[in-house]
């Protein structure tokens, strides 16, 4: 891999670019700021919050990248995008080439450019961060720029695929893990079919992440790209229910990749949690995103509370509370048992939420709910917390402050305290090892399960992580499954 | 897209459809349900499978007009397509030779009860079916039920057919007359609540098939949650059938009105 990177870096145009500007001048440029829709305007619309960089901004930001000899940024990327190559292509104005570079290893660049936690991945390994103690190159913003440029140019490249080898591969779930896996396998010449339980493709990209953060059109275009490469998709088909493991074998599938996700919401099991108006973040977001319940023409209803509390501090909680704001909540609140510092949500999501007027009740933990005579939630009791010693996760453990409780008036509550692996596959498949948490056990290097024809990745293995980690798993599994199948021929 | 190849009005409000769904027809068992969506703006709604013909590749659904979404389905005609259909969902009914089984079906609940009656009968049980409705016109599938039952008792609220009285009167009569090893009940939540209260009094194990609000039907959303034995369970993946004596029917009745 490193030979390939060095050979790419040694190309004449890259050398010429490096010489065209002094490193000191590059490092003196300050990091680009992503243009955003005004918080007051955007909290009433579904329009995407981040507007994307202008061409001038993108080229200027690309100048900051030093095209390092040892591009440490790549080590921070779960799908190992050749980051300097795509950025230098932006610097020289070859935006379509930049997009092609992204697609060498990423099945969903326009998605990743929007939802990846770059500050914890590539950008945390940028030379600026590690050595210069300056703000990193805005790799994520540039990724989005290149992917969007290609999309809007109408000149969307379809990655080359190897000649068809006729070997049938099944993918369970069309979320990020399954799509990344499918993209890599079809490039290698396999005959790939993706099975999706819902009526729309994309998994969490569709039902989970809201329009204002990841427009559905973007997901459609990325999936279209995979279709053009030859990936087949079957919606409304639940592997394990509609078709069984045996059916797949009988139909001649030689490999199965399971990316069925963490689709089982956790509740806190506290009194009153089943009152009307209290729901999981999955239910809330699925109603709004997948079923478009906020559209008056949609048959699917959704609560449009005025005093909405969202319990949790992750990205999904931020998505839910910001959605509630857009659906007309006058008071939209985050209830989180630790302090803001421990919140798992991306810094950008917290910032956006605050700008949109979301109230943060940190160091508060729900104790119970009370409703009216029709069973509709009216108020919730919160326990005030303080931070104690660090726990196993390294975060300071929240401890209840004895006797300090408070009642909060609410008319809708969204519980976003994590998800568990969806049990359908573990319940209906045999031959795999499953943990007591319900996750599928795999070899961490190959993503292979105890059944050597079945591989798995994403949240069904991790129990609840990010889009890009799921994609990384899909890539790893594709490489390993290809090696496994090839070695047996 | 699933093509409708048969349609029959069972009563003024109840329609029976035969729908092409070869994979579901092959894999479904008694107790399973499907989720349907009609039109691009349609809602996802669960319906229990009433019968299947794996050779023909069809399943039978019996749908009562109760609201916008069921009305949309009922307006479809032979040759039309259901936009989306997925299944079979839920856990299949636990079938074994229990001895004597009372199958208490109310209104349109008789339709999902039919495959359970069939399966219980072929497992060697003595099957006594109690069918109940408000009046004669609303009693459905009596002939099919009779084919697989040792005895059929009909109850109507107004006495226009069978005996006058509620389903609980019919069930109680059987329990007082002979030893009943299991009761299965499917129907409106309020009916199942009272059947459950009755059988609890006589200590007859009872299974109820719950029909809650759902979105995805695969465990993802939790809209269907119910309290069973003090614990929150999901009807879509843990059910739809539960030990009726442990189900908090009052909470379920309350939650069914969430969007009314």
Keywords:
heterodimer; A: 489 residues; alpha/beta; five-stranded parallel β-sheet; 17% strand; B: 260 residues; Elongation Factor Tu (Ef-tu), domain 3; Rossmann fold; 2 domains; seven-stranded mixed β-sheet; 33% strand
Secondary-structure map:
The complex is a heterodimer of chains A (489) and B (260).
Chain A: H1 2-9, H2 12-19, H3 23-28, H4 39-42, H5 55-64, H6 83-91, H7 95-105, H8 109-115, H9 127-132, H10 139-153, E1 168-172, H11 176-187, E2 191-195, H12 204-207, H13 216-228, E3 232-234, H14 245-250, E4 253-258, E5 264-265, E6 278-280, H15 281-290, E7 307-311, H16 315-326, E8 331-336, H17 347-355, E9 359-362, E10 364-371, E11 377-390, E12 396-409, E13 412-415, E14 419-420, H18 424-428, E15 454-456, H19 459-462, H20 467-487
Parallel strand pairs in A: 1-2, 1-4, 2-3, 4-15, 6-13, 7-8, 7-13, 8-9
Antiparallel strand pairs in A: 5-14, 10-11, 11-12
Chain B: E1 2-9, E2 14-20, H1 22-27, E3 33-37, E4 45-53, E5 58-64, H2 68-74, E6 81-82, E7 84-89, E8 100-106, H3 110-122, E9 126-133, H4 142-147, E10 151-156, E11 163-164, H5 167-177, E12 182-186, H6 189-201, E13 206-209, E14 225-228, E15 231-234, H7 235-238, E16 241-243, H8 249-256
Parallel strand pairs in B: 8-9, 8-12, 9-10, 10-11, 12-13
Antiparallel strand pairs in B: 1-2, 1-6, 2-5, 3-4, 3-7, 4-5, 13-16, 14-15
Could you give a quick summary of the protein structure above?
The complex is a heterodimer of chains A (489) and B (260). Helix content of chain A is 37%, strand content 17%.
Account of the protein in words:
Chain A has 489 residues and is of the alpha/beta class. Helix content of chain A is 37%, strand content 17%. Chain A has 20 helices and 15 strands. A five-stranded parallel beta sheet of chain A has the order 3-2-1-4-15. In chain A, a hairpin with a 5-residue loop joins strand 11 and strand 12. In chain A, helix 6 (83-91) runs antiparallel to helix 7 (95-105), helix 7 (95-105) packs across helix 10 and helix 8 packs antiparallel against helix 10 (139-153). Chain B is built from eight helices and 16 strands. In chain B, the strands form three sheets. In chain B, strands 6-1-2-5-4-3-7 form a seven-stranded antiparallel beta sheet. In chain B, strands 11-10-9-8-12-13-16 form a seven-stranded mixed beta sheet, with helices on both faces. The radius of gyration of chain B is 17 Å and the shape is globular. The interface between A and B is large, with 40 and 40 residues.
């Amino acid at each position: 891999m490193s030979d390939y990177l060095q050979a790419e870096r040694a190309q004449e145009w890259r050398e010429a670019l490096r010489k065209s500007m002094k490193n000191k001048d590059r490092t003196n440029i300050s990091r680009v700021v992503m243009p955003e829709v005004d918080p007051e305007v955007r909290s009433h619309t579904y329009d995407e919050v981040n507007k994307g960089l202008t061409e001038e901004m993108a080229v200027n930001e690309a100048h900051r990248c030093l095209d390092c000899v040892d591009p440490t940024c790549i080590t921070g990327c779960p799908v190992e995008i050749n980051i300097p190559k795509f950025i230098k292509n932006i610097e020289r104005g070859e935006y379509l080439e930049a997009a092609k570079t992204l697609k060498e290893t990423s099945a969903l660049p326009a998605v990743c450019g929007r939802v990846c936690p770059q500050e914890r991945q590539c950008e945390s390994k940028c030379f600026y961060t590690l050595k210069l103690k300056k703000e990193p190159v805005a790799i994520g913003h540039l990724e989005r720029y290149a992917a969007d440029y290609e999309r809007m140019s109408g000149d969307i490249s379809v990655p080359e695929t190897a000649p068809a080898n006729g070997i049938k591969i099944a993918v369970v779930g069309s979320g990020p893990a399954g799509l990344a896996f499918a993209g890599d396998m079809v490039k290698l010449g396999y005959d790939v079919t993706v099975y999706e339980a819902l009526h729309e493709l994309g998994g969490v990209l569709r039902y989970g992440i809201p329009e204002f953060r990841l427009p559905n059109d973007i997901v459609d275009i990325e999936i279209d790209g995979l279709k053009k490469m030859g990936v087949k998709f079957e919606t409304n088909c639940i592997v394990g229910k509609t078709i069984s493991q045996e059916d797949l074998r009988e139909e001649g599938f030689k490999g199965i990749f399971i990316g069925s996700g963490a689709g089982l919401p956790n509740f806190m099991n506290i009194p009153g949690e089943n009152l009307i108006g209290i729901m999981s973040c999955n239910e809330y977001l699925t109603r709004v995103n997948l079923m478009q319940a906020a559209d008056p023409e949609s048959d699917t209803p959704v609560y449009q509370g005025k005093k909405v509390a969202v319990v949790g501090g992750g990205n999904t909680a931020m998505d839910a509370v910001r959605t509630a704001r857009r659906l007309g909540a006058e008071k939209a609140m985050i209830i989180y048992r630790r302090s803001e510092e421990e919140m798992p949500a991306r810094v950008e999501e917290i910032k956006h939420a605050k700008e949109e007027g979301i109230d943060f009740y940190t160091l508060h933990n729900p104790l119970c709910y009370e409703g009216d005579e029709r069973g509709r939630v009216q108020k919730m009791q919160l326990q005030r917390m303080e931070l104690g010693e660090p726990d196993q996760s390294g975060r300071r453990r929240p401890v209840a402050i004895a006797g300090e409780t408070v009642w909060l008036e609410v008319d809708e509550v969204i519980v976003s305290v994590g998800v568990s692996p969806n049990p359908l596959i573990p319940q209906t498949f045999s031959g795999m090892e499953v943990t007591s948490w319900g996750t599928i056990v795999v070899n961490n290097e190959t993503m292979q399960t105890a059944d050597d024809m079945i591989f798995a990745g994403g949240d069904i293995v991790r129990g609840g992580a990010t889009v890009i980690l799921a994609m990384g798993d899909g890539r790893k599994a594709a490489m390993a499954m290809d090696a496994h199948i090839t070695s047996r021929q | 897209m699933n093509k409708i190849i048969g349609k029959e009005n069972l009563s003024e409000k109840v329609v029976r459809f035969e729908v092409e769904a070869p994979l579901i027809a092959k894999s479904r068992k008694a107790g399973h349900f499907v989720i349907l969506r009609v039109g691009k703006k349609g809602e996802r709604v669960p319906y229990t499978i009433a019968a299947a013909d794996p050779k023909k590749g069809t399943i039978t659904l019996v749908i009562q007009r109760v609201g916008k979404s069921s009305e949309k389905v009922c307006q479809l005609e032979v040759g039309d397509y259901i936009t989306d259909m997925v299944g079979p969902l839920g856990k299949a009914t636990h079938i074994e030779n229990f001895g004597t089984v009372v199958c208490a079906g109310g209104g349109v609940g008789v339709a999902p009860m039919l495959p359970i009656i069939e399966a219980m009968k072929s497992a060697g049980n003595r099957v006594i079916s109690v069918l109940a409705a408000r009046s004669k016109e609303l009693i459905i599938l009596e002939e099919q039920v009779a084919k697989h039952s040792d005895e059929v008792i009909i109850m109507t609220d107004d006495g226009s057919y069978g005996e006058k009285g509620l389903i609980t009167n019919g069930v109680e009569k059987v329990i007082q007359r002979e030893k009943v090893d299991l009761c299965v009940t499917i129907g409106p939540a309020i009916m199942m609540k009272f059947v459950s209260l009755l059988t609890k009094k006589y200590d007859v194990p009872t299974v109820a098939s719950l029909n809650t609000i759902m979105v995805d039907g695969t465990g993802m959303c939790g809209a269907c949650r119910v309290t069973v034995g003090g614990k929150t369970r999901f009807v879509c993946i843990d059910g739809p059938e539960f030990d009726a004596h442990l189900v908090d029917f009052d909470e379920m009745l309350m939650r069914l009105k969430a969007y009314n």
